[in-house]
Amino acid sequence: MGYLSAKEAAKLIKSNDRIYLHAVACTPNHIIDAIVERAPELRNVEFCHIHTLGGAPYADPIYKESFKVNSFFIGGNVRHTIKNGNGSYTPVFLSELPMLFRSGLVPLDVVLIQVSPPDEHGYCSLGTSVEATPAAISAAKLVIAQVNSYMPRTFGDASIHISKIDAMVEHNTPLLTQYSSEINDAEDRIGDIIANMIEDGSTLQMGIGSIPEAVLRKLNNHKYLGLHTEMCADGVIDLIESGAIDCSRQVTTNRKAMSTFFVGTERIYNYLNNNPFFEVRECSHTNNPTVICQNPSVVAINSAIEIDVTGQICADSIGSRMYSGVGGQVDFMRGAAMSKGGKAIIAMSSTTAKGANKIVPFLKNGAGVVTSRAHAQYIVTEYGVADLRGKSIDQRVKALSEIAHPSFREEIIRDYYNTTR
Question: Has this prediction a pTM greater than 0.90?
């Protein structure tokens, strides 16, 4: 079909189509905007995706007759759709999302992707985000690509030949960025604690955010670190350039780092371009616990919204209000636990920005348990580490209350036992 304008490509979309969107910095917003312009002509078009960057205009409730949203991970740009009734959430381990497409459990009509221009052999690159996109491409009836010269060329599962693309839209624009927030005192202390838990030769999994950034800044004196992760941001670059991350002991790659998507600033996007040190693989591989655990001393660092004193970890909702998603937390918690010398860590400040307690006697009414109390290993706050491995419920109550904010410690224990005894 060759190159089309965005408006011409948008005309290929039909009412009742289900569309999968390429994720994060690869979100093809130029084509999405053209589809939204057709809202009066379309009905019941479903956009499904994990986290995307951009305004997500299709998620505006004014278009609820034309478009609906199905989030496999709820980003801030579509969070309002759950309450407004024009969106829903499909819980799924990120490792299993490609299976939903390939098996036909979630059939796809269209996949919208953003790629680099084709090389002399006709191959484009999926660039900064692979995640479930290869599976979506193989399952969809129609593949439409936004071709962008700013998209870095990456290695692994990122190649796609133009013969697999039905329509291409050229639109050259810098990739959208996402910055880590400033590191506060509590997060800096958490970074110190976790850095001291990481041994030379460990394989790291961590994401974007102030706590992962705080950890990375403390690892300059480490050696032989590996990187097998779900997402990756700017913070790893200094450690790679200093030699702290060299992946020399990593089993799942040959001295290379592995991730399924990247999000950050222009620095990481530029660093990725034609850089064979990085393998960008489908999430069915990067997030597979039986693959992850092959690496030595996997340290998986994830976060939570709320944790109860028995070790139940809520990471996708605030009470009954859906907030994010299951994502890869359980994938990497299991992979780390199965790894020889591995550590599965949940790290969070002890209180919210408004001073509410995050370590609680009982989760809020309606809160979802993403990681079960049997999966929980290490919980870290600015007040220390609670090692829950092999601990009874009573031992867990004591250990977790000791790393809660001092203002809540007595209250946590009292409220738990007043209710359970």
Answer: yes
Query: For residue 338, what are its two tokens?
Result: 């199965």
Measured CA to CA in angstroms, residue 205 lies from 31, 174, 216, 243, 302 at distances of: 33, 27, 11, 17, 8
Q: How many whole angstroms separate alpha carbon 50 and alpha carbon 54?
A: 13
What is the C-alpha to C-alpha distance for residues 253 and 132, in angstroms, rounded to an integer?
A: 20
Q: Is 199 a catalytic residue?
A: no
- Inter-residue contact 323 to 316 (CB < 8 Å): yes
Structure-token match 């059939």, residue found = 107
Query: What average pLDDT is seen over the chain?
Result: 97
End-to-end CA distance of the chain: 69
One of 46, 213, 230, 306 is an active-site residue; which one? 230
26 touches 114 (CB < 8 A): yes
Q: Distances in Å between the alpha carbon of 68 and those of 41, 73, 105, 140, 287?
A: 15, 15, 19, 18, 28
Cβ count within 10 A of residue 41: 12
pLDDT tens-place string over residues 231-269 = 999 999 999 999 999 999 999 999 999 999 999 999 999
Given a contact cutoff of 8 angstroms between Cβ atoms, the answer to whether 180 and 217 are in contact is: no
